[in-house]
Amino acid sequence: MTYSIGNIRDEFPILNRKVHNSELIYFDNAATTQTPLSVVKAMDEVYSCYNSNIHRGVHHLSNISTQKFEESRRDIAKFINADKEHELIFTRGTTESINLVASSFGDAFLKEGDEVIISEMEHHSNIVPWQMLRARKGITLRVIPLLDDGTLDMDIFSSLINERTRFISVTHVSNVTGIVNPVEDIVKEARKYSIPVLIDGAQAVQHIKVDVKKLDCDFYVFSGHKLYGPTGIGLLYGKEELLDKMPPWQGGGEMIKSVSFEKTLYNELPYKFEAGTPNYVGAIGLKAAVDFIENIGVDNISLHETDLLNYGRERLQHEIQGLLFYGTGGDATSVISFLIKDLHPFDVGTLLDKMGVALRTGHHCAQPFMDRYNIPGTIRISFGVYNTHSEIDKFIGLLKRVEKLLK
Amino acid sequence: MTLNEVQEEITEEFSMLDDWMDRYSLLIELGNDLDSFEEEYRTDQNLIEGCQSKVWLHAWLEEDRIRFMADSDAIIVKGIVSLLIRLFDNRTPQEIVDAELWFIDKIGLKEHLSPTRSNGLVAMVKQMKMYALAFQHKK
CB-CB: which of A20, A346, A405 is closest to B74? Predict the structure, then answer.
């Protein structure tokens, strides 16, 4: 299939809007991707045609919405090649998925002195839940450091593993640099010692093909709103064997088989972890997003975005004096983090906003990364399925104007 | 000049510039012209950390008036800092405590003083008022 950027952009009316009287250039896809009409339509359909609580009513509407909700689970399971649908738990997003594992698995199976390995490039959402577990249980956090090129120091990673290591939680792709970590190697190494591994896929699933079976990780987590889906919905994939052993995290309706004041029996997977009415509208929207991606093809998206990445890096390097990239080692998805000599990222971001450019400046919720390089933050542009060369050209022109204003 | 008169003066200066780019150019100019911050006061205690940029604020009492010295690592923030200094420096604690800030809205820079924009400016204004309160009680 040929990559029809025109058709793809037609799916995103927001891209035609103006910001501060300028045409919008949306380069903040690592924070949130825009939502295609097909997703909006799928969610609109829920509310206008069959809205009803799932798994409860015997009535017609409830049956439809239950069926659609479970279809979403099935299709999203296929999307990441999970074996069994019930290995997928709907959550609010990546953050909640990690918190669920840190709390349920961590509280049940980790004890004082046990060690959890994370990395220096983690988003705060893959640091803080483990620190909270540390406060509760007295575990120790070990951190895989970064090399100067932004990649993980894999030699040190191997040396961090010892007989006290009980869990490894690392990101698949850095939200600051787009660097793709060698997660296959990490899982392989962990397998030797039977250490469970969680991979944070928030920045990966929208860019590269993810196959949890091939990867053989124990947990894989991601969010809907970075995957052209709605916000407030995300996934936790976990191996059945582990999820079965883990105690429920939150209590409520849906997650129980029977309740009496003396004894409550918990429901089976995946419902055991889905207390209360889930965000079924979000889940149905997310299925539409996955369909959207699969219609284009993840591999085609990867090709398009790699092309944008290379073009963007080359143009920036060539056109902007005193520009410094952060994290250019290894494979990367379409994220470029950079600084311009003597210019504060906040100033650059503020002026670019006035010119209609949406990008992110600051620490990107990864302060340890910034500390590592001793910088206040970076300017981050991140591309999606709908971005184009001409947007990059226009962006470079605007960046030059900003430079002139600030220097 | 009263505080309100200074606010009117600033508003007038900015209202002559219709283009946002000219207004930001002026801010950048003001930032560049701000009196240099004495390094001995660049302490953690004087640091107001925003999510994106930092502000340093030092205050002291000279007779019955509060003096301020401030800085920021981002030039646009520094420009706004410079306006706040122009407004509050060399005023009595009472004037600062009573002050109502309206010029930021008027000159189209409201977004920089909204609590969601964590550039340290909201905290800076709060801190200036806190100093005023503290000095008021000290007297």
Answer: A346
**Option in B24, B25, B53 nearest A346 (CB):** B53
Same-domain status, A24 and A105: no
Looking up tokens 């994220």 gives A335
The domain boundary, picked from A280, A295, A310, lies at: A295
B74 touches chain A (CB under 8 A): yes
Give domain status of residue A178, yes or no.
yes
Whether A35 is covered by a domain: the verdict is no
> Shortest Cα distance from A283 to chain B (angstroms)?
29
- Taking contacts as CB-CB distances below 8 angstroms, the residues of chain B near A349 are 52
Q: Do B28 and A363 touch (CB under 8 A)?
A: no
- Pair (A258, A242) in one structural domain: yes
φ, ψ dihedrals at A236, nearest 5°: -120, 115
> What is the extent of the structural domain holding B58?
3-138
- Measured between beta carbons, the chain B residues lying within 8 angstroms of A360 are none
Q: How many domains does chain A have?
A: 2
User: How many other C-beta atoms are found inside a 10 Å radius of the C-beta of residue A238?
Assistant: 31
| C-alpha dihedral sign at A248, A251, A255, A258 | positive
CATH number at residue B40: 3.90.1010.10
- Within 8 A by CB and 6+ apart from B68, the residues are B57, B58, B59, B84, B85, B88, B89, B128, B131
CATH of the domain at A391: 3.90.1150.10
Nearest CA in chain A to B49: A376
Range of the domain at A206: 40-295
A105 with A196: CB under 8 angstroms? yes
pLDDT in tens, chain B (139 residues): 999 999 999 999 999 998 889 999 999 999 999 999 999 999 999 998 776 888 999 999 999 999 999 999 999 999 999 999 999 999 999 999 999 989 988 888 877 766 656 667 888 889 999 999 999 887 6
